[in-house]
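Quick one, T. Sequence first:
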Amino acid sequence: MEGNWFTAKIDGLNDKIDAVQTLKEHDLASIQVRFVDSKVALDAALNAANEALRRAETGSEKRFDTLGEIIDQLREQQGAFVSRAEIKAMVDAIQDNTQQNKDMISASLPRSEASFGFDRLHAEASVNYDRGDAAIKIAASRISILENANANMNGKMWAFGALFTIGNVAFTWWVGISGASHLVH
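Structure tokens:
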């Protein structure tokens, strides 16, 4: 009996070992199924992420291509603009020409009537300085000379304006008559 009991215990342990092994095989099969399912899900997620990344890169490339075209256009436009150095050189040249023209005009104009009048008054004042009313007379004469010079200049400017207006009217009339309206835009 003791042999039976021992055999029964070993058989019971073998049954339990078989049960544990069956559970282990079942768990292992379940783990393998979950692993396969996880691998399928992970592959699907990776494929979706790769597709999203590919689309994002394509969109970025298109945006960068467009940005590159805009940058090229801006560079092209920038090449057409005048640089600060060129503008400064132009302004300096214009200022130099203006100063040269002022100098030439000043050198070519005869002395004005006012200059001659001041010289005459200065000579009279030095001769007649001992009289008390000489300063008043000199001041009144200077004012008179300046007023005359101003009136002469105003008359010259009025005459120039009138001649310019007459020329403009004549040109406009000629264009209207001759049918040369294509000259005026």
